Amino acid sequence: MQSNLQKIGTILREKREEKGLSIIDISDMLCIRKSLVKALEDGNTTLLPHEVYIRGYLKKYAHLLDISVETLGLEPRVEEQAIQPETTPNRPTIHGPRHIARRAMVIPLVFVLIIAFFVLNQIYKERSAARSAPDLSAQSNSVATKKASVNVRETAGTNAAQQADAGGEAQALPVSDIKKLMITCHDRTWVSVVIDDNEKKEFMLSPEEMIVLNAKDNFDLLIGNAAGVKLNLNGKEVEFTGKNGEVKRVKIS
Questions:
Q1: DSSP string, 202-217
Q2: What pLDDT is stored for residue 155 in this prediction?
Q3: What's the mean pLDDT in 183-203?
Q4: What are phi and psi of 30, to 5 degrees?
Q5: pLDDT tier for residue 231 given thresholds of 50, 70 and 90
Q6: What is the Cα 202 distance to its own chain's centre?
Q7: What is the pLDDT of residue 69?
């Protein structure tokens, strides 16, 4: 696998450099050591684990850079045919009193399990319906007017933002002091954001998906596809442009 791994590593390194990413960026996004990323690109098998784990790391790396596994030659390998177990001759079934009594116990048990399944399924549907009830807050109303099919995820950036939502406490920040950043995705991309210089979050967004972030001071964003998102701060659109596939960093305060 040594020669193939070196070719694959070269492709990954060239694609990473084309997107303007460093080894540290890849290490943070894949949650693996920088030395392991370097070994994958160099094809250095002495610093890499078993081949099974290497293939897994390469697939994750390729997916992050939008490279198909077929391009890298990582199609699933044909597994060995399973050994057929030896067949044993069928023995005649003896229907005696013990067999009849056992079947008489199994039939009621099956009915009980079926009834329990339907009851649990109904409870699950009711709880799911309760969780998906519409939120009548002002933010949800504004999002609904944009597009009903958009999937919205909202996360609080600081403890101060959570206190302001709770309200009534002496040390809570006024809601007007909280900065809300709305990221709308119209082309698949990943987003890494540092909130108030101390809290880091990462997202993989699909088209028609939206996230809302709360912060006290600022947002520091690294966007993998600059042409795939729109930014809106406290109801005002942020001037942000870029090319398709371009990695771009922007700080908003």
A1: EEEE-TTEEEEEEESS
A2: 56
A3: 91
A4: -90, -10
A5: very high
A6: 9
A7: 77
Closest CA to 251 of 234, 236, 233: 233
The predicted structure's pLDDT at residue 89: 47
Which residue's structure tokens are 């809570």? Answer: 172
- Specify the 3-state DSSP secondary structure of 184: strand
Structural domains in the chain plus CATH codes? 2-72 (1.10.260.40), 138-252 (no CATH)
Q: Is the pTM of this model over 0.90?
A: no
CA–CA gap between residue 173 and residue 159 (Å, rounded): 10
Highest mean pLDDT range out of 95-99, 162-166, 183-187? 183-187
Separation CA 230–CA 235 (nearest Å) = 12
Amino acid at 10: T
Would you give the DSSP letter of residue 249?
A: E
